[in-house]
Amino acid sequence: MIISCNGRERHLQAGTTVTGLLAELQLNPQTVVVECNKTIIDPKEYDALVLPEDAQVELIRFVGGG
Amino acid sequence: MSLFAVPDFSEFQSLLHSPTTTDVEAVLQKDKLHINDLATLLSPAAGEMLPALALRSAAITSQRFGHVIQMYAPVYVSSFCNNNCVYCGFSAENKIARRMLSLDEAEVEMNILADRGFSHVLLVSGEAPGKVGVAYLAELARRTRDRFAALTIEVQPLSSADYCTLFEAGITGVAVYQETYDRAVYEQVHLAGKKADYDYRLETPARAAEAGMREVGIGALMGLSDWRSEGLVLGMHLAWLRKHFWRTNVSVSFPRMRPAEGAYEPPLPAGEKELTQLLFALRIFDWDVGLVLSTREEERYRNGMIGLGPTRYSAGSCTAPGGYANPEIEGEQFSVGDHRDLQEVCASIRLKNHDPVCKDWDATFQKGF
Amino acid sequence: MLKIADKTFRSRLFGGTGKFSSSAVMNEALASSGAEMVTVALRRVDLEDPDDDIMSVLDRERYWFLPNTAGARNAEEAIRLAHLARAVGGTNWLKLEVTPDPRTLLPDPVETLKATEILVKEGFIVLPYMNADPILSLRLQDAGAATVMPLGAPIGTNQGILMRSMIEIIIEQAQVPVVVDAGLGAPSHAAAAMEMGADAVLVNTAIAVAGDPVAMGRAFGLAVEAGRMAYEAVLGASGKHAAPSSPEVGLEFLK
Predict the structure, then answer these.
(1) C17, C22, C26, C45: best mutation site toward chain A, by most A Cβ within 10 Å?
(2) Percent of chain B beyond pLDDT 90?
C-alpha cells in the first residue's frame, strides 16, 4: 500500500504499525512526534496503530532555530 | 492579585534624609526616576533647592500637559458620617447640624455649577452608607450625567461591584485618600466606623480601577504624620497602581490640614514650602500624574503655582451641603482658602498664559450610554 | 535570578540553536555563553539524514528547551505547532512566533494575541515574540503571557535597539519579564538592553555566524551580565537637562 510520509510517497507492507514505520526509518521514537491525518498519535498507541491506506503521515522533530 | 504593601516608615528614613545637593542635582538630570530618586527629591537637601525643582517640574508639566489647567468644583451632598476621624469637621463626634441633600436638592446644586460653567463635578459626602449609598449616587449620576463631562466621587470606600454599578451610571472617577499611610498614626486618628480598617481603605483605589474607572485619585493629608514619608509612599502607591491598572489614570491631591470645626491641631503641620516640594517631587517622579490643587490653598499660592506642576484646580468651592443654593448655610467640612469664583480663577489662569479647560472627556462616549 | 512562570534561571541570555556550522560548534558556543534556555524549532524529519537530531546533541539536563512556532503565519498554524512541540518535547513552554510576511518576518500582533489567549487556556507557558508595542505588551500580559519578547530591531538586521523608546515603556509597565529578542547584532546591543532594565535577551544569529562563535558566545554572556549589573547598580544621569544654576522660575509668592 502507499502512504504519504513527510510529503513523499512511500510503499509500505499492508498492516505496518507506527512502530514498524519508525523502525524501518531508523528513527528514535523518543525524539519524534508522529502526526497521522493531522492527528498527533499518542506514543502508547504506536505498537497497535496500523497505518491506513493513503495515510498522510508527518514525522516531526526539533531542529535548530532561534 | 497581589496587594499594595506599605513599608514601615522607619525603613526608608535614611533614603529621605541622607541625600546631598549633588544627589538632588543628579536626579534632576534623569528622565526615568527610581523610587529612591523620589526620596532624594523629598529630602531636606532638595527642600533648599526649590527653584531648581520648580524649573524641572514646570518643564515636564508644559511638555506633557501643555498650557492647560482643568477646572472642577465639589458638590457636598451629605455631612452625615459614621466615622470618628479626630481631624475632620464631619467627624461623628462633632456636634454640627447634619444635612443630607435630597436627589432634587443635589440636582439643584449641580445645575448651579453647570450654569457657572463647570463640566467636572466631584460629588462629596461623609461616610454614612445608610444615607448616601450606591443607589443614591447612581440615580444622581443618571439624572445629571448629560450635563457634565466628568462626574467623580469622594465618598465612603465601596466594593468593586458597586464601582461597576456607578461606572455604568456615569461616574467616571473615584477619589479616596488614605489620609495617612502611617499605620500607627492611622489607627490613632480613625477611632471608629468602617474607616478604622486601614487595609480596606488602602485597597480602595485598586477596587475602583478594577471596576473600569477612568481615573482614581489618591492622596494623604499633610499634617498627620511626616510629610516626606507620606510623599514617598504616595509615590509607591502611584507607581503600583500604574503597573497594575494600566487603563486607569491616576491623580494626586494634596489635602493640607487647615482648621476645622472641632479645632484639631495637626501634630506635624506642613507649610506651603513643604507642599510645594512634595508637588514638584511627584511631578518629576511621574510626568503624567494629574496633580490637583484645591481651594484649601490660598489665592496667592494657587496663582503662583500655575504652570509649575498642578494640572487641576477647583474654584468657587463650598464644603457645606447645599451651600451653592444657600450661601449662608453652615456646617462646612473645612474652611476654604481661596474664595474666588470660577470666572475670577479662570482670569488668573489666563493671565499666566494658561487655558482653563472645563472638560477633557464626554462621558457620553463611554460604553453603555 | 530570573523567574519565568515557576522556573528560575541564573543566566539572562537565551540562546538560539539555528544557523550554526556544526552541532559541535553550537554546543561549544552555547556552553561558553552560559545560556540555560535554548530555543528550538520544529521541522519534518529529513528522511535522507535521519540522524540529524538536536535532541541527541543537546543535553536536556543542562538546557531548558523553548520550542518556537517559527514558520507559522497565523494563530491556527501556531497552535498546531504548539501541540506538536508539546508532543515532541514533553514541554508546555512555547516561544510563540506568528510571522505572515516572509520577507521581514515581523510578528502579526492580532494573530499573536489570539494564539496567546487560546494557548494560555490550554495550559501552555507562552512567551510571545512581538513588535515593540507597549499596548500590545499589556494586552499579551493580561492574556496570561509568561513574558513578553519585543524585538530590538527587525530580525536579522543586527541593528541593535532601534525601538528604544517603546522598549523603555514596555519595561516600565510590564509585570512579567521582558525579553528583548531579534536585532541584537553585537554584545554592546545586548548590554544596552540589559542596562535599560530588560530581564533577558535572546541571541541566535549574532553568535552562530560570528567568525568565532565560541568566543562570541562568551562575549554575549559577559555583556548580558555586565548590563544587568549596571542596571542593578542604577546608572548615573546623562546630563541632558538644563543646568539648574540659574533658574528662571520665581517662587517669591511662597509664604
Answers:
(1) C45
(2) 70
Please write the tens of the pLDDT for every residue from C208-239. Answer: 999 999 999 999 999 999 999 999 998 776 66
Q: Measured between alpha carbons, how far is B239 from B261 in angstroms, rounded to an integer?
A: 35
The CATH code of the domain that includes A22 is 3.10.20.30
Partners of C68 on chain A (C-beta within 8 Å) are 65-66
CATH (domain of B253) = 3.20.20.70
Q: What is the pLDDT of residues B13-36, one digit of tens each?
A: 999 999 999 999 999 998 889 999
Please state which of the ranges B81-85, B267-271, B346-350, C228-232 shows the lowest mean pLDDT: B81-85
pLDDT digits (tens, 9 = 90+) for B165-184: 999 999 999 999 999 999 99
Domain membership flag for residue A66? no
CATH class of C2-233: alpha beta
- Candidates B32, B49, B273; nearest CB to C168: B32
DSSP string for residues in C21-64: S-HHHHHHHHHHHT--EEEEEEEE--TTSTT--HHHHS-TTT-E
Residue B2: inside a domain? no
Contacts of B56 in chain C (CB under 8 A): 241, 244
Shortest distance, CA A30 to any CA of chain C (angstroms) = 8
Query: Are the CB atoms for C12 and C201 separated by under 8 Å?
Result: yes
The boundaries of the domain holding residue A52 are 2-60
Q: Catalytic: C95?
A: yes
Under an 8 Å CB criterion, which residues of A touch C? 5-8, 25-28, 30-33, 35, 40, 58-66
Question: What CA–CA distances, in Å, run from B279 to B198, B259, B290, C110, C152?
Answer: 24, 22, 11, 41, 36
With CB atoms and an 8 Å threshold, state whether C45 touches A35: no
